[in-house]
């Protein structure tokens, strides 16, 4: 009952809009500073590789796969990372502030926060992670007072047109798999 209220109620949409704009502003500000301040992730990546998140008692690395990813993919491709992080943070911020592709922006915000936490950076990341999850959990209601109110119906209409041709290719009733009805 609470989840339904959160995803459909207009007052919940108003509250989540305030949260969405606040989180969006934080992302936009962080991204803008990186875009205009000559961001270079090399030092951060070297620090995360050199001193990975470890268990205090055993000193065993807690996220060895992530450390491997940083060492063998992110660091050798730091020029790509130097582009993706500031542009991504800025786009996440814009998407959340204007309520455009809100769930996509919240998802990528959560993903970035998780990557920063896995690298050992606490800072505001747990807070932004929790608020981003709150926005994401609200579903389409998070963008109700934003561009999504106009954009999502257009995307649904376009998707319906795009997939309408499947009816003839998949079977008589368009359900796929030779006319067998798939469970939802």
TrEMBL record:
Keyword Transmembrane helix appears in the UniProt entry:
yes
What keywords were assigned to this record?
Answer: Membrane, Transmembrane, Transmembrane helix
Q: What membrane topology does the annotation report for this chain? A: Multi-pass membrane protein
Residue intervals passing through the bilayer: 9-28, 91-115, 127-147
Which PANTHER family does the UniProt record give? Answer: DOXX FAMILY PROTEIN, INTEGRAL MEMBRANE PROTEIN-RELATED
> Principal place where this protein is found?
membrane
**Pfam families, per database record:** DoxX
Official protein name in the record: DoxX family protein
Q: Does the keyword Transmembrane helix apply?
A: yes
Report the subcellular localization: Membrane
């Amino acid at each position: 009952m609470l989840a339904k209220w959160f995803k459909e109620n207009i007052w919940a949409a108003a509250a989540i809009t305030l949260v969405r704009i606040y989180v969006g502003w934080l992302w936009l500000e962080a991204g803008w500073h990186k875009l205009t301040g000559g961001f270079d992730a090399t030092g951060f990546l070297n620090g995360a590789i050199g001193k990975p998140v470890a268990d205090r008692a055993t000193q065993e690395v807690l996220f060895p796969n992530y450390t491997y990813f940083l060492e063998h993919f992110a660091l050798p491709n730091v020029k790509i990372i130097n582009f993706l992080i500031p542009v991504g943070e800025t786009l996440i911020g814009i998407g959340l502030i204007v309520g455009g592709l809100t769930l996509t922006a919240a998802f990528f915000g959560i993903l970035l926060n998780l990557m920063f936490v896995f690298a050992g950076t606490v800072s505001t990341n747990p807070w932004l992670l929790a608020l981003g999850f709150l926005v994401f959990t609200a579903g389409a209601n998070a963008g109700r007072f934003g561009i999504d109110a106009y954009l999502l119906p257009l995307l649904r209409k376009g998707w319906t047109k795009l997939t309408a041709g499947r009816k003839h290719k998949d079977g008589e009733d368009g359900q796929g798999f030779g006319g067998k009805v798939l469970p939802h």
